[in-house]
What we know:
The chain is α/β, with parallel strands linked by helices. It has a domain at 13-90 and 156-234: 3-Layer(aba) Sandwich (Rossmann fold), CATH 3.40.50. It contains 10 helices and 10 strands. The strands form 2 sheets. Strands 6-7-8-3-9-10 form a 6-stranded mixed sheet, with helices on both faces.
Amino acid sequence: MSDAVLSLSGVQTYYGRIQALRDLSLEVHAGEIVALIGANGAGKTTTLRTISGLLRPARGSITCFGTSLLGLSADAIVRKGVVHSPEGRRIFPRLTVLENLRLGAYARSDNEISADFEMVLSLFPRLRERLKQKGGTLSGGEQQMLAISRALMARPKILLLDEPSLGLSPILVDTIFSVIHDVNRRGVPILLIEQNARKALQVAHRGYVLETGSIVKSGAAQALLADDDVRKAYLGED
């Protein structure tokens, strides 16, 4: 039996008659950051949407700590500890920062919510200054901080991050990746999709390369960084 926190095996997902994922299999183990890299349209976001219950696979299995996620609603999957910070941030623009963060904890009834609230504000001190501000008035970088913090308020057992650095300045990109590393050090496994493949593989333990819905390479992140095909296709090197 696999000791994976998250396991996908033979997953096939369609948009209508168009097949987006083709027998996709991957695993994330305890303590890992796993990067999923590939060109636009390769199926990376579809993978996360399938895991989080926003899309239903036609075939295959998806398990978290050995329990199947198939057939569960998206909110039930969050309650299982699988939390998705989506591409495009998707914060609630008319709600304040504080209200967005509280919504992240909507499925919780434990006594640790206040501690986690302080934890996310320690990761992103700028949000503490913006608690009463409407989400839609934040800068792009601040909205990304809020999106990740909202996901962390759900106390994930595994965190799915989709393009966390998209559209951000280099300084903010470094901040976001520093936080990703910090969150992982706190014990949260992460499945990371990131347009900046070099950054993703630098922070990850392992990686998968996705092409037209299929995994074509996988291995240790450092090995993928040194792979000639990966360097040419995704790292901009000749």
